[in-house]
Design a protein that fits this description.
This is Discoidin domain-containing protein. It holds the Pfam family BT_3987-like_N. There is one protein chain. Helix content is about 10%, strand content about 40%. The chain has about 450 residues and is mainly beta. A hairpin with a 5-residue loop joins strand 30 and strand 31. It is elongated and about 115 Å long. The termini are far apart.
């Protein structure tokens, strides 16, 4: 026979009260334990998770531990302590380890400890440019816990030592090597219109600075030169026997250059004046240019220097205008403004050609073929509407069959007595050169102070 028991409502109420009472006592005890003003001891810890890397920095999460749950939220101060790592390295307790410089590390001022927490983390950020200098090696940093708030204390483990291998974080392709763009690690031959630009001051050799990898913040590089090794390179047969080192007064090179933010390249120019070229026409000039230091990243071990070898005899330019015979399609009867003034090497005189109707030419004829690679035109003293606007330069072997070498359209001369240079590529020398003018700026006459032809090596 089955017995049935009926639980009366009073009994249900008593059971609920007992359950609530037991629960309240437990929660009250727990709450009481945390709310008591009991100090806790904070100790330094190790890496607390994944190390994260981007194009600018590495972020390392680091843990601190508490001897008991925090009864109040508080902060513990943080300080870098490079001396600890240095002492450990010098004493032999840390071997094959490099000390990270303090300027490469960003450490927060304090770590926040939450109420009830038994541990907390903070993040150390290391600039990639500071870390990559130690690529392939182990590095270390140390920090101290200081000034715990709310009456808490620091344990005996007040200093944390973080050691890691850069190979675990960086790869070869992550390294931002800084190098010389043009000819880094080689002998750069400056001759025959290669590896230089012509200016009125001399030859400009564009060396340049390059950054490998993803660009980030701006940085500067410091340059240096070396002339002592030139004689050794000559002795080894690497440089010609007649090579001499450039003196400091024979070139211009800035001491520092800046690569802008999010850029991979910057200009770095070596300038050798024409006076140096002319004075050393029978010699070869050399200079070792190097990147001596960089504010960020790492100098390329093989491409941060270049041996610049200048051949004056093959970069000298000669104005051959005076050796040619001038002819024009029609001259000016006024001796003060006739065609002879076009090539008299005096910008204060001018050739004014009347009766311009959209077509005119000037010609220079040489006894021997000349390799012309540039020419100049100088505006005359007045009336800008008489300036040349559209033209072409042609070359010929016989004065009958003409080859167009250079064409210009829409040219302007912003000032009077302004000389503009026009370079063009050619591999052939001609005896005849003709400038065909097809338009000016609206006047019925054309005028110009000078037309010069420049022979290139």
């Amino acid at each position: 026979m089955n017995k049935r028991y009926k639980l009366t409502k009073p009994l249900v109420f008593i059971a609920l009260l007992c359950t609530m009472s037991i629960s309240c006592k437990k929660e009250g005890l727990d709450s009481f334990a945390l709310n008591r003003n009991v100090a806790t001891t904070v100790s330094a810890g190790e890496i607390a998770g994944e190390i994260v890397k981007n194009s600018d920095e590495v972020t390392i999460p680091i843990k601190v531990t508490l001897s008991s749950p925090a009864t109040k939220a508080f902060q513990v101060g943080l300080q870098l302590n490079a001396d600890t790592v240095i002492q450990l390295v010098e004493s032999g307790n840390l071997t094959d380890v490099y000390v990270l410089p303090s300027n490469a590390i960003t450490l927060p001022n304090a770590v926040d400890i939450a109420y009830g927490a038994k541990e907390a983390t903070f993040e150390v950020k290391i600039g990639l440019s500071g870390l990559e200098r130690f690529f392939g090696h182990k590095v270390a940093l140390a920090y101290d816990l200081v000034n715990p708030g709310k009456g808490n204390t620091i344990g005996s483990d007040k200093s944390g030592i973080i050691v890691f291998n850069t190979n675990d974080i960086l790869k070869e392709e992550d390294i931002h090597y800084v190098s010389i763009t043009n000819g880094g690690g080689t002998v750069l031959e400056v001759r025959n219109r290669r590896n230089y630009n012509v200016t009125s001051a001399g030859i400009n050799i564009p060396l340049g600075v390059s950054l490998a990898g993803t660009p980030g913040n701006f940085f500067t590089v410091t340059t240096g030169v070396n002339t002592d090794s030139i004689a050794s390179l000559v002795g080894q047969g690497i440089l010609p026997e007649n090579t001499i080192a450039l003196r400091p007064d024979q070139y211009t090179l800035n001491e520092t250059y800046q690569v802008g933010s999010n850029l991979s390249r910057a200009a770095m120019d070596l300038i050798v004046p024409w006076s140096t070229i002319e004075e050393n026409a029978d010699r070869t000039l050399a200079l070792v240019v190097k990147l001596a230091a960089t504010s960020r990243h790492l100098l390329d071990p093989t491409k941060s220097h270049v041996v610049v070898l200048v051949h004056p005899q093959y970069v000298r330019e000669v104005d051959v205008t005076a050796t040619g015979t001038l002819s024009v399609d029609h001259d000016n009867s006024n001796a003060n403004e006739n065609a002879a003034k076009l090539i008299d090497n005096n910008i204060n005189t001018k050739f004014l050609q009347p009766g311009f109707v959209g077509s005119s030419w000037f010609q220079l004829t040489f006894s021997e073929p000349q390799l012309i690679g540039a020419y100049t035109i100088t505006s005359a003293n007045d009336a800008a509407d008489r300036d040349l606007k559209d033209w072409n330069l042609q070359g010929s072997d016989d004065g009958s069959i003409w080859i167009t070498l250079d064409t210009r359209a829409g040219e302007t001369f912003a000032n009077r007595f302004l000389t503009k240079r026009y370079d063009f590529e050619t591999a052939k020398a001609y005896k005849y050169y003709r400038l065909n003018v097809t338009n000016n700026n609206g006047s019925g006459v054309i005028q110009l102070a000078e037309w010069r032809l420049i022979r290139v090596p």
